[in-house]
Amino acid sequence: MPKDDIVVEVKNLQMRYGNNTVLDGVDFAIKKGEILVLLGPNGAGKTTTIEVLEGFRGRSGGKVKVLGVDPDVGDEEWRSRIGVVLQSWRDHSKWEVRALLNHLGKYYVAYSTAQRKRPFDADELLDKVGLTAHAGKKIGQLSGGQRRRLDVAIGLVGNPELLFLDEPTVGFDPKARREFHDIIHKLSDLEDTTILLTTHDLDEAEKLSDRIIILAGGKIVANGSADALAREVAGKTEVIWIQNGKRHVHSTADAAGYTRKLLTQYESGISNLEIHPASLEDTYMAVVQKHEEPTTPKEEK
Amino acid sequence: MNRTLNTLQLGIERGWMEFKLVLKDPQSIVWIVIMFGIFLTVLWFQRGTEINGISLALLTLPSLLGMQIASSGFNDVASVLAADREDGTLFRAKATPRGMSAYFIARIVVILLTSIVYLTIILIPSLLIVPGLSETISVGDFFTLAWLLMLGLLATAPFGAIIGSIVKSSGAGWGLTLLPLIVLTAISGIFYPITALAGWVQAIAQVFPVYWLGLGVRSAFNPEVAAAFELTGSWRTAETVLVLLAWAIVGLLIVPKVLRKMARHTSGSEMQAARERMIQRGY
């Protein structure tokens, strides 16, 4: 693929604190416009990886390029092309919602280009994240979910080429979560924004991702689309049906073949036929378990 | 647009918005009412007592103004910086292009504006309460107060920023600066004449800015004869400038290094850790 199509490039990323190895040779790349989801158990190094890419944390070794620049030496110009949404903001609680978004947007005016207008209009953005009704409220008075949506709006205000989201939907109710997913899809479709997000929600990962990377014990243990990962690891599909009032479950690698045989064998009497391919959850469990067991003695963080 | 100028503009805008929030914040209003209520009560009770024909309140008022300058520079800067580190305001600034520069410009704007407001809040009622003040006050006095304010903030704010950069919590930022200020206020002739204290205590007091700020503002608002009550019987203006300048230079030499280190260590996980400490403390 062409060089300028790669937004993030990580080669042999290492991170150690004393004797504790947090990241041990992580390699991956993110293409322009791609939504990459980083999965992994707590302490797997997700947040560390994101912070290295954001330029907020020095690394112990390896080569990292974000938008063509080493984050360690990224300047303000570079910073202006990146959006950051963190796990837990609770800053500016006395500011009004619109006032803060407006103010923060102004920092990006100087970096506006013909190809990429900066910043987004504050009111449009508030509308996009569903906060128009709360625009005049103090930020400290927002609910948890509203606060997170404001965080996302702030991450977006500079119309970033690359957006980092660290567990963006923690504390969201199902409706807020659905709305948030819509925003992410819109962004990556319309604005050509590349997105890297971490989550613990496998359903969310499946819905949002173009590609998933699973980190465990400081290493990448799986890398591919949600479908590909599910096929690769679990492999077996469950066929469930009801025959003469009795429920049957059969596990097979060839669901289509088995189902065809089943339906030709019995002309009638089969109902409620369901086919369940291996889920991302199955894959995740299998992969993470396999890579957690050999690590003796168990390390914290 | 020139980016440096633009950053300055953003910092001033930020400072102005923060300043308005300080004035609207119920918590800070309660604090202002209590603090300045105490100051004015002290002046009220002192107004009838005279020393060599000068009202005691007229001697205390400038000392209070001097102490207030030190408090604005040292305590306010430390507690705001510590709080902004803890709640992620500073990290937000770091995640924004030129956000850190604008943040520090905003700090200067806020500290300047709030200290002017505080001095005004003490001064205006004092014109009514303090005998002899309205008769002797002149434009020149305010000029003296203005340069003392500038020099006093320069001498104290860097140290406030250093404390605010190294403490682990906003509460510690507040406590660690309040205690030294109370001690220095007690020995610097703010409420109690320094000439009545032991020689070694006087010596310690004269090392720190609080004494010199009190002395400096007294030189502005007190009649010339009151200089006789001072340690050497004079206002020692040259010494005042030199001591404050020395503190300012030392502070300004150290503070960029400390701030840079603090900024480098500002990260999301740092913030998360601060948040967890806060949850554990329960406030």
Please provide a written account of the structure.
The complex is a heterodimer of chains A (301) and B (283). Chain A has three domains: 1-80 and 193-234 and 279-301, Rossmann fold; 82-160, no CATH class; 236-277. In chain A, 33% of the residues lie in helices and 27% in strands. Chain A contains ten helices and twelve strands. In chain A, the strands form three sheets. Chain A has a six-stranded mixed beta sheet with strand order 5-6-7-3-8-9, sandwiched between helices. A three-stranded antiparallel beta sheet of chain A has the order 2-1-4, with helices on one face. In chain A, β10 and β11 form a beta hairpin. In chain A, α8 crosses α10. Mean pLDDT of chain A is 88; it is low at 295-301. Chain B has 283 residues and is mostly helical. Chain B has one domain. Chain B has helices at 3-24, 26-46, 56-87, 89-95, 99-129, 133-136, 139-166, 170-187, 199-205, 209-221, 237-264, 268-281; strands at 50-51, 54-55. In chain B, strands 1-2 form a two-stranded antiparallel sheet. In chain B, α2 packs antiparallel against α3 (56-87), α3 (56-87) runs antiparallel to α5 and α3 (56-87) packs across α10 (209-221). The termini of chain B are far apart. The model of chain B has no long low-confidence stretch (mean pLDDT 92). Chains A and B meet through α1, α2 and α3 of A and α1, α4 and α12 of B.
